[in-house]
Amino acid sequence: MKANKQVAHKRGIYLLPNLLTTAGLFAGFYAVVASMQGAFASAAVAIFIAMIMDGLDGRIARMTNTQSDFGAEYDSMADMISFGIAPALVIYNWALYDTGKIGWLAAFVYVVGAALRLARFNTQVATADKRYFQGLASPSAAAIIAGLVWLGSDYEWDSKPWGIYIAIMTMVVGLLMVSNFRYSSFKEVDWKGKIPFIGVLLIVLIFVLVASEPPLVLFSGFAIYALSGPVMTLWRIKDIKEERRLRKLEEADQSEINEESEENGKK
């Protein structure tokens, strides 16, 4: 009986983090449905809600010690829907539908970029530098797309004359996800540490700006973040090359040590 209970416990899934992941997945699916009905502002807001859920599920899992392989895989599948397929279909329904072949090709490039970005992240998560993301993270890319749609819907823009330019922007955002540009992950920030009083005022100011013009501030903020990758990478190109050279030397030394240990073991 005890053995059966242990097996059942192992086969179960943790409720809270996976519930948040499901909420994010629902928000992404709702964004697609809302865009098909012409409710583009609601679709964009749903993608931002999915971003919040995606940020919470991993942190809640670590705080409650409920991480699991199932949760990690489920989170990746949900991210593909919420930050890959949903933004592509929302931007297509809003601005790319009338552009013909280039419209759906631009949306497809974005979807492929999101898929490749998530696959690369999952395979490199154990060895990657925690301080940086390699390529634009898919939630940030989705925020640019959703922010533009929300901004255009809020200001009642006619997107048809700008369809080709929006298609190009969509493809560029998709390519940024699979680029080698470095983006700060902000994981080196000590969220539990103390900050100067002026820091609190800056945080309050950010909240005020977001509350005053959410679509404009969010789109501008994530667009600036997208541009920071190429700028930061080119600014630190020498340091990056030196880091790669040192890493290769360390790997070569480690391989030599492994070969010597194998030879000694055979002897």
UniProtKB/TrEMBL annotation:
Gene3D superfamilies: 1.20.120.1760. GO terms for molecular function: CDP-diacylglycerol-serine O-phosphatidyltransferase activity. The gene is pssA. It is a multi-pass membrane protein. It is found in: Endomembrane system. The keyword Nuclease does not apply. The chain crosses the membrane at residues 12-33, 39-56, 77-96, 102-119, 131-150, 162-183, 195-211, 217-237. This is CDP-diacylglycerol--serine O-phosphatidyltransferase. Its EC number is 2.7.8.8. Belongs to the CDP-alcohol phosphatidyltransferase class-I family. Its main location: membrane. It is an enzyme of class 2 (transferase). It catalyses: a CDP-1,2-diacyl-sn-glycerol + L-serine = a 1,2-diacyl-sn-glycero-3-phospho-L-serine + CMP + H(+). It comes from Kangiella aquimarina. Keywords: Lipid biosynthesis, Lipid metabolism, Membrane, Phospholipid biosynthesis, Phospholipid metabolism, Transferase, Transmembrane, Transmembrane helix. The keyword Transferase applies.
